[in-house]
Design brief:
single chain; 131 residues; alpha/beta; three-stranded parallel β-sheet; two-stranded antiparallel sheet; 6 helices; 5 strands; 41% helix
Length: 131
């Protein structure tokens, strides 16, 4: 007998076999320096500027050294940005024009067009990966 999980999101039902919910242990391993360098080079080759930091403090300093006060900033969903506290500073400090909270405060049904106009492209979009 197969077991399934049914998840309902916005009136749409998604059915997943339970086996699909078993974590892939490959993602539990830290990335090697070579993997990080390869990923950074691939991103750069596609026009995405990358910075790598040795630790969270260095990463936080890099981010806030680069962000001018008053800049429009969209923070991508990122556990790293949350863990480092960067998301909260961007969203709540008042030093930046944080687009994500504005977007989520809008009604998708009645303000969908305004949401699409608001988000792309901000002055700065932050995303992070912590191996």
């Amino acid at each position: 007998m197969n077991h399934y999980i049914i998840k309902e999101i916005s009136n749409a039902k998604y059915t997943y076999p339970v086996s699909a919910l078993i974590p892939n242990q490959e993602f539990a391993k830290l990335a090697s320096n070579e993997q990080i360098e390869r990923a950074a080079k691939a991103l750069e080759a596609n026009g995405i500027h990358t910075l790598t930091a040795e630790n969270g403090e260095e990463a936080e300093k890099m981010v806030f050294d680069l962000l001018p006060e008053g800049a429009e900033v969209f923070t991508a969903t990122s556990q790293t940005l949350e863990t480092l506290g960067i998301k909260d500073v961007v969203d709540k400090s008042g030093r930046y024009e944080a687009l994500r909270p504005k977007m989520f405060a809008m009604d998708r049904e009645t303000q969908g067009r305004e949401i699409r106009k608001l988000v792309p492209p901000p002055n700065i979009s932050l995303a992070a990966y912590m191996p």
